[in-house]
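Side project, low priority. Logging it here so it doesn't get lost.
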Amino acid sequence: MLRAFLRTAAARARARSTRPDQDDDVLLDAPDDRLAPALLAAARGEHTPAAGLLTGTRERAEWEHRDRYTTRLAAFSRSRSEWLDTWRATAPEDPGAPLVAARLAVARHWDSPDRAELLRGLVPAVTAAAEAAGPDPVPWRTALDAARGAGAGHAEFERLWGQAVRRSPHHYGCHVAALEYLAAASPGAHRECLDFAETAAQDAPEDALVRALPLRAAFTCLRAAGADVGAATGAPPRDLRVRLDAAADRAIALSAAHPAADPWAAELRNLLAYVLVRLDRLADAAEQLRLTGPYVTSFPWDRETDDPLGRFLQVRADVRAAVDAAPRRTGSGHPRSGRGGHAGRGDH
């Protein structure tokens, strides 16, 4: 049922644009096997599977899954919230419902021209709910996002950050919120963002998702710099380029710990492919595009276009063409990746 729904949505999107290399099996933001039943039930107006899903993540302290599932359930509720209203009304003691509702409220206010004012009014309630959530760090991720959108000062943001990391020192979502706050507070502070991300990754367990935070920082740097790092002044500073490559290499190692065509690793691999293309490491990018299989995520492609699936397909086609056209090389092309050599730059 869900697969048919996603195929229909993808077909409608394809009809709006001409895309190269269209694959019938490519899916945009496809849920994993745990989330899919909850979304199907929500489409029927039923909240019990979603409640059970989030209860399980809380009981097992699966904070990364809880964060991701909360985001996806809130995104679904933006157009169909009746099931969430019913959930909140029939199970007022269930902490999952207010968690999704808070994430939904922040997302809705974020798109408003009065975002800062609306979020300033929301922060106290979101923070109070987070304080009542015990060891769960996920509500604090929502509080951090709300504070960032409200333009909170450094002292207030640091207070919220302290509460978040006290509950889970390696929670990826909270670290992303803090990284985005740093980037917004000090535009152009690429090295400071990388410092923060590298320290967080270095201190984290080998399999922790926060080890991909330097990749997210690299993405932030590349997006701020335009087409290339240092585009305004020519080649990027060597020390910055080395750090960006190191962030990509760390993420390649993290990607290798997951099986190919794994929906859980899809966002990591989509982001990694994006960064590798921007670093002109097209052979490495082609490998990540292969590993992601049919799973396309809106982020990061939606940062460039309102048609993220079309953008992914265009980039994938360009990368494949560039790699196929590149002359065969012997030895390692990139000194850190240990993979094939660089291909020529396409129009990305």
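Brief comment: Confidence is low (pLDDT under 50) at residues 1-6, 8-18, 227-234, 335-348.
Revisit when time allows.
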